[in-house]
Amino acid sequence: LATAFSTILLGVWDVSKEAMERGELSGMVNLTALTTLIQVSGILFVGLLPRTKEDLATLHGDPMSGSKIGGFIFLLVTFASVIYSVVVGVLNIVKPGWSGES
What is the DSSP letter of 49? Predict the structure, then answer.
């Protein structure tokens, strides 16, 4: 997903071919740092996972654990992210420059 975000964020920092040829790499460094942070941000949620089988059973017994709305939102975000990434990847190949970057 970070590559899709990087495509959208190309206009934030100057990462054009001309900037690279001039040796101005700050935009590329900033974009790389941001997308790297996005990629590893999932590590922040590891602490929320149950540690033992008993923790998992307790979590499963919670009345809010079987939320159909929460499950739907989770699956919606997951599948929408995958579809978005595929569409952006295909557009980058089929129609370079579609998002306005140089």
Answer: S
**C-alpha to C-alpha distance for 102 and 97, rounded to whole angstroms:** 6
Cβ(49)–Cβ(59) below 8 Å: no
**Residue 35 pLDDT > 70, yes or no?**
yes
Give me the DSSP letters along 70-84: HHHHHHHHHHHHHHH
The first and second tokens of residue 87, run together, are 């569409």
Q: What is the pLDDT of residues 53-96, one digit of tens each?
A: 998 888 888 777 777 888 899 999 999 989 988 998 898 889 88
Locate 93 and state its tokens: 């190949």
Classify the phi-psi angles of 23: left when phi > 0, otherwise alpha if psi is within -120 to 50, otherwise beta.
Answer: left
Residue partners of 30: CB distance under 8 A and separation at least 6: 13
**pTM given for the model:** 0.53
Sign (positive or negative) of CA dihedral 89, 70, 49, 43? positive
